[in-house]
Amino acid sequence: MTTTATAPKQTMAFQAEVAQLLKLVTHSLYSNPEIFLRELVSNASDACDKLRFESLNNAALLESDPELKVRISFDKDAKTLSITDNGIGLSEQEAIDNLGTIAKSGTRDFMASLSGDQKNDAQLIGQFGVGFYSGFIVADRITVESRRAGLAPEQGVRWSSEGTGEFEVAQIERADRGTRITLHLKDDAQDYLNAYKLKGVINKYSDHISLPILMEKEEWKDGELISSTDPEGGRQPGGMVKTGEWETVNQAAALWTRAKKDITPEQYDEFYKQISYDQNAPLASTHNRVEGSTEYTQLLFIPSKAPMDMFNRDKAAGVKLYVKRVFIMDDAQALMPVYLRFVKGVVDSADLPLNVSRELLQESRAVKAIREGCTKRVLGMIEDLAANDADKFATFQTEFGAVLKEGLGEDFANRDRIAKLLRFASSTTDTTTVSFADYKARMKDGQDAIYYITADTLAAAKSSPQLEIFRKKGIEVLLMADRVDEWALNYLHEFDGTPLQSVAKGAVDLGKLQDEDEKKAAELAQTEFKPTLDKLKDALKDKASDVRATSRLVDSPACLVVQDGDMSTQLARMLKQAGQAVPEVKPILEINAEHPLVKKLVESSNFDDLAHIIFDQALLAEGGMPADPAAYVKRVNALLV
Ligand code: ADP
């Protein structure tokens, strides 16, 4: 190759995160070193995809070399292995930027989440995707020579590093467009200087890459005669000798274009791992060719583990868009609703134009049809897990149950299907496996609503004063502590004809579940107790919008509720913490007239202090914080003394 340095080289330091990552790569991933080849071939393939895409608008970029491919070769004497592509290439600045820093968002969070435990960290690193840097698992020096498509031959670049603190870059002349990565193999990685071994690794990880991967053909060459006295020959093996001819060593057909029956489960899993950076096999997959008014192929996976940043709704979705096998874009958000952003996979459309932009995608009718089709398939996959694989469905719930709930507010067309797939904890069970249908089947005679409570934690929900009357009457209440619960449940008013009712909103109306005596007692309390309630209202006028007697409490003196339709105090608190403006809603204080503390209050000489204590304690009981904690402590201490 004609690559001569034409400018002095510069030495530069890696970004601190890269240096740290490199250490981890070489120490944590050594147990599975062969993944380096998968990563480098995948980068080469991405580089070719990018060039193919850019050349749609600028055919000159292909120069006189339009057939995109990856070549793998090795040199036993020099102990080097190289991966060469004729893709988009790198300019000098791109080499500095892309191979010296990590641009991925979340790098810092990722670094912080590492535990120091090699096995765990290796898993995490696998998920994060170390890409190019994985070369340093097997190499003690990596040289990258590249020229960006469209730049002149003198504007090539050579990048080189030993994978410790720094790297060198120099401008070089390079006739060929694209990138060659040369690995100077460590002593314990010399087994990669072997065509058979390399083919095995390619077959395992890179078979589905749609680009041809080429290796030089070798021939067995006889060596010298060792013994002329042995008539059988007795020749010394001459070894394999390169022939100068190149052969394609992978299937070179994008996996999703192949017939389902020709694809093994292992191949699906491997493809998933490749596109998702996940080391674990997926929980479920679906592969279909859809024909009709819009034509496309979908290959979609549900991972078995949620990503670290799953609750970032702006996070790019995981579905790649291809048009007639040409890669168009990663993370095509328009292809999947936001609440299914954990799905990974590929959609290959036969109808979209090759130059489709993100903006165009948003408006396209074909894309809308694809999104609807993909949504149905994914819900189908989850339903299938629910019906046929309890273990996997439980994993799904743990990892993605909360995100799925967002669908109630986002996807009205599929709301009923989504509601059926949700599972909850409840006041009468210890597991988080209760569906609305299970709940309905266990409803008491005369019960006409599905009761639920939202709280910051399951423990807080479970011990909430609002549950007391339900517990006394043996009525099950669904416990909800996911952040999205309250928002999502706003959109679900009923399930299969039965209304949903929050036990922390509005007055309790147990309807037919309350007997006549109980109703009378409640009414009586309301009138007899009126003077005390009025006094309380006055004492707490800055804190409570109303004070009333309640029959929902058994062991607690008081609790807070909000009007039907108002935001719960818990949601308001959460939004405030997130820095959002929240309309000030004063809760209603409900009093248990039967409680000794309340009875004491009626005759108390320090009525106001006790009133404030009761209010603040009701707030504490639901996980809130008194507006003036110091005043609260002072009042309680005065009582204790
Ligand atoms: P990732 O591929 O996840 O972005 P990598 O560390 O593997 O991270 O690569 C970093 C960047 O270096 C890539 O995003 C790409 O811009 C560039 N790069 C790596 N390999 C090549 C290649 N063969 N040709 C062109 N650019 C490459």
Written overview of the protein:
The chain is an alpha+beta fold and 641 residues long. It has four domains: 4-220 and 239-248, Heat Shock Protein 90 (2-Layer Sandwich), CATH 3.30.565.10; 255-395, 2-Layer Sandwich (Ribosomal Protein S5, domain 2), CATH 3.30.230; 422-512, Rossmann fold (3-Layer(aba) Sandwich); 515-640, Four Helix Bundle (Hemerythrin (Met), subunit A) (Up-down Bundle), CATH 1.20.120.790. Helices cover 36% and strands 21% of the residues. A nine-stranded mixed beta sheet has the order 1-6-5-4-7-3-2-8-9, with helices on one face. A hairpin with a 5-residue loop joins β10 and β11 (296-302). α9 (365-388) runs antiparallel to α10 (390-410). The protein is elongated. The chain starts with 9 loop residues before the first strand and ends with a helix. The structure holds adenosine-5'-diphosphate. Adenosine-5'-diphosphate (ADP) binds at residues 43-44, 47, 85, 87-90, 98-99, 129, 131-133, 179.
Q: What is the annotated CATH architecture of the largest domain?
A: 2-Layer Sandwich
Number of helices: 21
Class per helix and strand makeup: alpha+beta
CATH topology group of the largest domain: Heat Shock Protein 90
Number of domains: 4
User: Which word captures the global form?
Assistant: elongated
Percent of residues in helices = 25-40%
Ligands and ions found = adenosine-5'-diphosphate
Quaternary state, please?
single chain
Spatial order of the strands forming the largest sheet:
1-6-5-4-7-3-2-8-9
Query: Between the first and last Cα atoms, what is the distance in angstroms?
Result: 90 Å
What's the average pLDDT?
A: 86
Number of strands: 22
Regions with pLDDT < 50 over 5+ consecutive residues?
230-234
> Describe the biggest sheet?
9 strands, mixed
What name goes with the CATH superfamily of the largest domain?
A: Histidine kinase-like ATPase, C-terminal domain
Radius of gyration: 33 Å
Query: Which CATH class of the largest domain applies here?
Result: Alpha Beta
Q: Indicate the proportion of strand residues.
A: 15-25%
